[in-house]
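Batch manifest, entry 17 of 40.
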Amino acid sequence: MARLRAPGGCPWDREQTYASLAQYLLEETYETFDAICEADQTGDTINLREELGDVLLQVVFHSTIAAEKNDFTIDEIVKGVTQKLVLRHPHVFGDKKLETANDVLQNWDELKKLERETVGKSEKINESLLDEVPLNFPALLEGLKLTKKAAKVGFDWENIEQIFAKLDEEIDELKMAIGEDESNNIAEEIGDLLFVVVNLARKLDIEPETALKKTNRKFRKRFAFIEKRLKEQKKLPETASLEEMDELWNQAKGL
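Output type: structure tokens
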């Protein structure tokens, strides 16, 4: 990467900055997420290996730019994450007794505070507990993180039944908004409904982004089956009836 950025290297690589590379880091992260879902379903890790390499490339790219600007180096990145691993696992590298994964999670905030003190990093002052959740997170992830934070201080449903009751309430409110043909209210009620579903996933210890990704993959596969079968019949989806496609959908579900 240093060679690519040097005189006589690649003009495009030399022009890149932290900001210009941000979109590529995001894209590569999502592609890695997709490769993880694929590996989980099929056991094939070839794409995962490649996508992790692409993410690593982004880290190398940013650290090369940083070294040129005397901001930091790749060695400092590695040293920092190594130190973080040690500090956040006192039950492994120290004398702390934490027997279960839940014990570790409950001790997490204390560990982060200790970490900041050790490295001399000032603690960010937030006006709200929820300010710790980045605004730029994908919506499902943001909703999950927000409600996890709120639940930590006791602002949470007591059981699953209460969430299902809230789900029914939000569905009724959405139906009412649709009936009144109020587009702004419809959008708001859709958001409320999704927010409750995110909380249901949280209560069931399901990561909603991953769950939806898996469903998206399933939809792609089943719709591709419909297209393939219609093609065999010399038809296109736009010329086939809903009944025909629905029948093929049910066939795809049985595979």
